[in-house]
Amino acid sequence: MKKRILPILLSLALSASLLPAAHAAQVTTADMAQVLAALDIMTGNEEGDLMLSRQVTRAEFTKLVIAASPRGKNVGATTTVSPYPDVPYTHWAAPYVEAAVAAGYVNGNVYGYFEPDRSITLQEGVTMAVRLLGYSDSDFSGAWPAGQMALYYKEDLDEGITIGQTSAMTRQDAMYLFYNLLTAATKTGTPYLTSLGYPLTAAGEIDRVGLINAAMNGPVVMEGDWRGKINFDVDTATVYRGGSLATLAALQPNDVIYYSASMRTLWAYSNKVTGLYQAVSPSAASPQAVTVAGKTYSIETAEAAYALSNLGAYKTGDTVTLLLGRDGQVAAVASSAAGSGTLYGVVQAVTDAAYTDQSGNSYTAKTALIAATDGQTYSYPLDAGSSLKAGNLVQVAVADRGDAKVSRLSGSSISGKVNAAGTQIGSTKFAEDVEILDTDGTGAAVKLYPSRLAGMSLESGDVRYCRKNANGEVDVLILDDATGDLCAYGVLTEVNETVTPIPGSISAFYGAYQYDIGGQTYGFVKENGILNLSKGPVQIKGSLASPEKMTTLRSARLTGADASVATFSNGDTFPMWDQAVVYVLENSTYRLSSLDRVRTGYSLTGYYDKDAAQGGRIRVIVAKAQ
Questions:
Q1: For a disulfide at 123, which of 99, 145, 502, 603, Cβ 3.0-4.6 Å?
Q2: Does 350 or 335 have the greater pLDDT score?
Q3: Phi and psi (nearest 5°) for 59?
Q4: How far is the C-alpha of 418 from the C-alpha of 477, rounded, in Å?
């Protein structure tokens, strides 16, 4: 796995047992619990336990119904009305029963009682659910609950539920029912989730990430009394840091924290940028974006906007530290000391850049654009006599006062085979927060995750720099074009190579090449030589307009392929590149396609650059109709 040098995006990953029904291939019980908690429909106790095996009372189910209804957030915790003789206004469920009665979601028994403490049966729960969909009892003919149960099956509300209609429901049954309800059609034909103000995806599925983002509160910076700003006991929270499951103890000062009380979850982000405060837009009176260390960031919070405004503590020319939130936006501005430390990376370019000093005066300084191992790009001014150039490895030492010193990075190598789990090289472990960058001599760079190196054998020549932390673990690793992921991959569509003999002289060579890279066409002319290439899949190193090198890929017939692995016709498997391109070849013409479109009715040939142990991947697949 890898990513280009871009801001880190939010990722959520949970593992749990699969559902026993139709949702099983896609949705886990943990996924469903996340969605219902994000919507504040169904949450656990103070320890986060959902108690799924416990039976649900009529009072508890009625509260779930109100929570799942469009009016749910408007129902208070108290009332002065006693909706039933056995539900006086002092009963904890009275406000929810009162609201459910007013909406027509619930009824009492023939004797005028509600029976709040009796376990609810499936047929009673289904009746309330179909009323949420906009149906009334008059919409069904025949004896109750035949019509309601028929709709229950028609709308797939039964997925995951195995009990009979007169059986008592458990909290797990209720979880399945309310989750299924979200994508069920209302009486008017619209998905129920839209009545709660949330759209489905284009594929008609629940957008979990969107719901979780909407459920997040914050940001809160981890400083001072940060716990007091969060409306639940954080000691019981599930914690994610940088997209990975973590612990409360793993949080660090100046982390940017988002939270959800209903999900009892904290999400912490540690990205920060220290550098010269160069500009603000659209104006210092109303900041919406700020440029620091050559990069512009959107401002997320009013507090950060104020700090960077003409009323705040920071002015252009100051060295500041931006604390970045989940979307790479500025959540807060800290003292420059908060960003002190060392940054590692490769110089992508050296140019002159304009700056403004603390007095508002403009000046120009030689500046290095740096791709850093943290996945970000930065620009820092260099000393006037600096000889740094594109492709050089550098370290940026940021002092407590915010001054940044860019210097060449001395080499320190390591070699060995990376284990299958991608957790260590040879006998040396990777740190939990290891930063890995693959680079080349031109300054091109791609950030890698340890799993990308799993199974690879790295020679000392593959490693430009290695740093170990106090525990002897590798925490920074910069490679020398070791994976091949810096290259572009596609197909040569036109090749014109000519050799013209010249009597009494050296022959004249001419090569013209046209190639498709992911649907984009490029051309290259080599006037003083030829590359001895033929049409077909190719690896291109360097600029697409003027390649440094073009190499024909190796091929193998495939019997199948998915996003992670391809199977050769001899039964061997080979890893897929996560950006592999697929073409259909028809009448000598290559047409961009996708794996999903060529799974049946086509013969497949996979093209790879080198052996998997050296980082090779299937880069291109060509499909031909059978």
A1: 145
A2: 350
A3: -65, -45
A4: 13
Q: Name every residue whose Cβ is closer than 8 Å to that of residue 134 and which is 6 or more positions away in sequence.
A: 186, 187, 188
Residue 74 CA to residue 598 CA, distance in Å, equals: 51
pLDDT greater than 90 at residue 397: no
**Are 462 and 480 spatial neighbours (Cβ–Cβ below 8 Å)?**
yes
List, for residues 22-81, the tens digit of each pLDDT value: 333 457 888 899 899 999 999 877 666 788 999 999 999 999 999 999 988 788 888 899
Residues 496 and 514: their CA atoms lie apart, in Å, by: 9
- Report the sign of the C-alpha dihedral through residues 537, 541, 545, 551, in that order: negative
- Across 440-535, the runs of DSSP E, i.e. the strands, are 445-448, 457-458, 463-468, 474-480, 488-500, 508-517, 520-526
Q: Where are the alpha helices (DSSP H) in 222-357?
A: 302-308
DSSP at 444: -
Bond into 191 cis (ω within 30): no
| DSSP track, 530-591 | -----SEEEEEEE-SSSEEEEEEPEEEEEEEE-SSEEEETTS-EEEEEEEEEEEEEETTEEE
Tell the residue number behind the tokens 């103890």, with chain if given.
249
| pLDDT(1) > 90 | no
> Could you tell me which residues come within 8 angstroms of residue 107 by beta carbon, excluding any fewer than 6 positions away?
101
* Contact (Cβ atoms closer than 8 angstroms) between residue 271 and residue 324: yes
pTM over 0.70: no
Q: Is the dihedral of CA 44, 46, 49, 51 positive or negative?
A: negative
Residue owning tokens 């979200």: 182
CA-nearest of 318, 320, 307, 317 to 274 is 320
pLDDT tens for 121-133 read 999 999 999 999 9
Look up residue 296 and give its DSSP letter: E
Q: What are the structure tokens assigned to 520, written together?
A: 């984009």
Tokens 């930063």 appear where? 435
Cα Rg of the chain (Å, integer): 31
Q: Which amino acid is at 133?
A: L
Both structure tokens of 251 = 């949080």
Per DSSP, what are the bridge partners of residue 145?
none
- The DSSP line for 185-217 is B-TTSSBHHHHTT-PBPTTS-B-HHHHHHHH-E
- Rounded Cα distance between 282 and 280, Å, is 6
Task: Give the integer Cα–Cα distance in Å for 568 and 584.
Answer: 19
Q: At what angle do helices 146-154 and 122-132 cross, to 10 degrees?
A: 70
Distance CA 446, CA 480 (A): 11
Identify the three-state secondary structure at position 2: strand
The mean pLDDT value of the chain amounts to: 89
